[in-house]
## 1
Amino acid sequence: MKNAETIRAENLRLLLEETPTKKVKDLALRIDVDPSQLSRWLPGNKNQKALSSKSAREIERRLGLPENWLDQDHHPANSNDMLNIEALSVSDISTISVYHPEDGVDDDEIEISALNVYVGAGNRIHTEQVREDRKFRYSLDWLNKYGLDPKKLFRFKVQGNSMEPVIMDGSWITVEIGVSKIKDGRPYLIRSGDAVAVKYLFKRPDGGVIIRSHNPTEPDVVVPLSEMEHVEVIGEVVESTSMWRRPIKP
């Protein structure tokens, strides 16, 4: 059985893997510790040092995680939610039902509208009209699980490759409008000048922000407090979906 120190170290590794850049320095910035200290807490370091309960609680507080999250085993191999591929049969898949747009929405479902604009994931891409109009259906259980307000959720289509491979060109994103409190390293829909784009945001000590793409070829944009009047946080990106196949040509 794993001890608490091992579980905390493995969970720190998971948090690092979920950090957009996967860099120790960026996660260290989010939890306000020296990168060398964070490295010593991670598994595999020959000078590894145990993460104390006090430090674990402080990390959870800074990342907005539930108390004692780091003490619980979240390693994929121990997840009860993993799909049992061997037990999955074709008959299981065939039971999936398809709904049509004209079908009514069940009591435990809602539909989220897709706004008729593209948003950029590139360099100064302006909003454009989307040539398709659709709605996306979600279960209320899913919304409640993540604490989302259905009245504030909208879907947008992304154009550009600056957030690839996390958010692909042509992806649909779900945005919770009105969420303007910045959590370092999260993706947000922002308006910068006359461009609307999806980017990671990081807070600066002076009250400004750093605007970052996932694609390493795109440079950071540093916005000091004196220029924040030109940047508006429209909402937080809470989900993205991509189609890997191209549309069939008529």
## 2
Amino acid sequence: MSFELILVIITAITGVVVYVDRTVWRPKRERSVTTEKEPLLVEYSRSLFPVFLIVLVLRSFVIEPFRIPSGSMYPTLEIGDFIVVNKFAYGIKLPVTQTKILPIGEPKRGDVVVFKYPKDPDVDYIKRVVGLPGDEITYIGRTVFINGKPAKQTFLGEYQGEGSGKVMNGASLMQENLGDASHLILSDKEKTSQDMNTVVVPEGYYFMMGDNRDHSNDSRFWGFVPEKNLKGKAFGIWMNWDDGIQFDRIGKGIE
């Protein structure tokens, strides 16, 4: 059972208790000849319901925090980064069912997106949008081809990471352009390029890749991500804890 579903259930239960107390139980207590103490269940529900409701609304419709557990998005995101995700960037969805009730925007190439892993929806993944619906995507020799055109890559030097990122020291730090979007990626020449023949992204789906191209489990291996699985667009880092706090990453934007 997901945390989101648990939060919805707890919010609903405490809300029902507060409502029933206000409309049924409290009037009975007030009419009673003897003074009746407010039940403990009602007391706790009245105190906690507003808290649960605010958390539910924020997590479902505004922002949601996530922690980065792996290095698949180096150098953009590091292990231990705590990020915030814009939940309404791609439309407002109902919690649990993820039914879109208000379309607002669509993913663009280069967006860093949190989504439910298609093979196991209880697991959240974070990758970069590379292919949009209708795009032809090819990956050969560590180069992405979109509709037959290679994404421009510029070598910037050798990557020098900190903390757990040191494991990628010496990898090639590249700047990649996906149309108007520009971002950094890593290329590990000691690994075999995970080449992929041309695929066409179906309507309503997206092709995702990690920025740490040779160390990422992404759409090259398990396919496309349906629009309904998108949870939101990552836009900022509010904390990093990886063998201690890295203060230089706090408040950093995600590009």
